[in-house]
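queue> pop job 88
queue> type: inverse folding (structure -> sequence)
queue> payload:
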């Protein structure tokens, strides 16, 4: 029986045009490649090449063999990828979320319900991509701000997140019962990156200047040491160290509060059902 490596070598000869060029591309010697092609011919009990004194070219049978070799290699690659992906799906749970806060609540629950499984997570503001990732089995669970209308998908309300602004004591806006995003015009605020769908909220605040931080610990330390306002949510303020000498004021804009839905494929119903909402 021939080997996949021989088919890959045959394809390389067809693409390179000559045996020497193919051997160079494959990083093997020309005699070794020639012997491999002879063994392939022995398997088929027919020549695949027309040989002249200084040249060896694929004949009609060889060209046919190359055509089907490509199909075999493509199928073998798909087979290998599919099996490895199945192995990963049985040993790993990938979670996609459109905001970090709800993900902080979810991951410990997943860990408790699936002990021994490797967990990974992704935060993306592109909820359409997360939805597609759930359907194509990139993710086993996703958290997004709307339910997915699909009979093959299970969804339930998981949690709600409300935006607040953290002001230092004595700030002119710290005494308010609530504020709007427009009230922050002209201010400089600290902002942590990778906020998922919350990114759209601060992007529309074009009259507010933001100092962006990409490191979570550096951001937390800066908030503690600074007199600049920053965003917090009902989830983040309960999952981080308490901010001393700070007043938390809710944002009253309609888009400052979001409900997040946990979604899974129906074949993951057991895991889905064991995860309790955090409303």
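queue> result:
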């Amino acid at each position: 029986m021939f080997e996949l490596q021989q088919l890959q070598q045959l394809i390389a000869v067809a693409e390179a045009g000559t045996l020497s060029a193919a051997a160079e591309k494959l990083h093997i010697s020309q005699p070794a490649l020639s012997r491999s092609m002879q063994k392939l011919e022995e398997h088929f009990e027919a020549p695949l090449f027309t040989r002249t004194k200084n040249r060896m070219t694929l004949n009609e049978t060889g060209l046919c063999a190359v055509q089907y070799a490509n199909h075999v290699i493509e199928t073998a690659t798909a087979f290998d990828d599919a099996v490895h992906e199945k192995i990963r799906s049985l040993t790993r749970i990938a979670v996609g979320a459109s905001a970090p806060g709800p993900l902080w609540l979810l991951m410990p629950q997943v860990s408790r319900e699936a002990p021994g499984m490797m967990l990974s997570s992704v935060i993306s503001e592109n909820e359409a991509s997360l939805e597609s990732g759930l359907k194509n089995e990139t993710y086993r669970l996703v958290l997004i701000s709307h339910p997915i209308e699909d009979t093959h998908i299970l969804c339930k309300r998981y949690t709600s997140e409300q935006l607040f602004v953290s002001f230092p004591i004595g700030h002119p806006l710290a005494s308010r019962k609530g504020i709007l995003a427009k009230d922050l015009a002209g201010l400089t605020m600290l902002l942590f990156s990778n906020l998922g769908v919350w990114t759209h909220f601060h992007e529309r605040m074009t009259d507010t200047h933001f100092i962006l931080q990409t490191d979570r610990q550096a951001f937390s330390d800066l908030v503690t040491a600074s007199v600049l306002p920053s965003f917090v949510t009902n989830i983040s303020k309960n999952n981080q160290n308490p901010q001393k000498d700070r007043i938390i004021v809710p944002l009253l804009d309609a888009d400052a509060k979001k409900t997040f839905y946990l979604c899974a494929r129906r074949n993951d119903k057991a895991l889905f059902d064991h995860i309790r909402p955090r409303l």
